[in-house]
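### Sample
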Amino acid sequence: MTEENGIPTVVTASRVIAAPARVIFELIADPAQQPRWDGNDNLAEAAPGQRVRAVGDVFTMTLTNAGIRGNHVVEFEEGRLIAWTPSEHGHPPPGHLWRWELEPLDENRVRVTHTYDWSRLTDDPKRQQRARNTTSDWLLASADRLAELAEANDGQPSA
């Protein structure tokens, strides 16, 4: 495990969600859905029509502090894997990554692993402090909210 001053720079949380992988993945891959399951209450909104489909896609998110983030998709496998590197609007990504991995256990149960990797974060100390404070509990809060939505919507990812 990579660490900085004894603090892990790669943090993960995993849980099983009782819903089909396609439903869970749609909630993750459609940025307009992300504020509904964000366990850190950091995401305010994303315009509809930005559904991620490939590496190289960029989706825009408005944060609760009114900041705008461009999210550059760097890993993608439909129904299984999505990862992006956020950046301030119009700037290159500073080096942190958010990843979601789905491992179907059967038709209606999926192990979901959420990872935050800030091992390559290069910018200001304020962002580095926030990265240090990102724990597996924070990641699990998002996975738990994602589970509530996926399990409660009877196979439908929309509101």
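Helices lie at 21-29, 34-37, 125-133, 136-152. This sample (Polyketide cyclase) is used throughout the tutorial notebook.
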